[in-house]
């Protein structure tokens, strides 16, 4: 699935393993296990797509990264855990990406007025909305959608609705 993870040109060649991902995922209750099988697959596809784009409160993972920040770069399980912590944890006023992609989040009237609706596009808004969202079509959002569609296709799951954030107002 991570087609470039073992390329010679990849600085992290051989770093990200399936076992490290599974080990990290088990640390976050509900990740990849919430909802029906399509919802579970869509969450994994969404997470992998966002982290794929981004890679071209630390106490929550059980490691003191303030004293040893290099663990993120040297330990693949810790690296996945930091990404999963961000994925699973709401950052007010933003919901968690997990809650959005698993349909546990419902838009308020303020969200609806801002064009924020459930779907993959809102996940992009949560992660990088201030730079990429509410500006019409752009290459960054299109790139994220491309990764998402690729992972959904591999997992044989539909994409769902609201894939982009082109017309969504970013969170404050």
Automatic annotation (TrEMBL):
Keywords: Carbohydrate metabolism, Chitin degradation, Chitin-binding, Disulfide bond, Plant defense, Polysaccharide degradation. Residues 10-32, 78-88 form the Glycoside hydrolase family 19 catalytic domain. Pfam families: Glyco_hydro_19. CDD domains: chitinase_GH19 (cd00325). GO terms for biological process: cell wall macromolecule catabolic process; chitin catabolic process; defense response to fungus. The keyword Mitochondrion does not apply. SUPFAM superfamilies: Lysozyme-like. The keyword Disulfide bond applies. Defense against chitin-containing fungal pathogens. This is Glycoside hydrolase family 19 catalytic domain-containing protein. GO terms for molecular function: chitin binding; chitinase activity.
């Amino acid at each position: 699935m991570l087609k470039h993870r073992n390329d010679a040109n990849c600085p992290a060649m051989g770093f990200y393993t399936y076992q490290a991902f599974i080990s990290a995922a088990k640390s976050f209750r509900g990740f990849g296990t919430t909802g029906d099988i399509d919802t579970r697959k869509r969450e994994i596809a969404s997470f992998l797509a966002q982290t794929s784009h981004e890679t071209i409160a630390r106490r929550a993972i059980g490691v003191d990264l303030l004293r040893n920040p290099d663990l993120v770069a040297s330990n693949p399980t810790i690296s996945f855990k930091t990404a999963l912590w961000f994925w699973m944890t709401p950052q007010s006023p933003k919901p968690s990406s997990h809650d959005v992609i698993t349909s546990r989040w419902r838009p308020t009237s303020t969200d609806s007025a801002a064009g924020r609706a459930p779907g993959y596009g809102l996940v992009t808004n949560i992660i990088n909305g201030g730079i990429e969202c509410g500006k019409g079509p752009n290459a960054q959002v299109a790139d994220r959608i491309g990764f998402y569609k690729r992972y959904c296709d591999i997992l044989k799951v539909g994409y769902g609705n609201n894939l982009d954030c082109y017309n969504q107002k970013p969170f404050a």
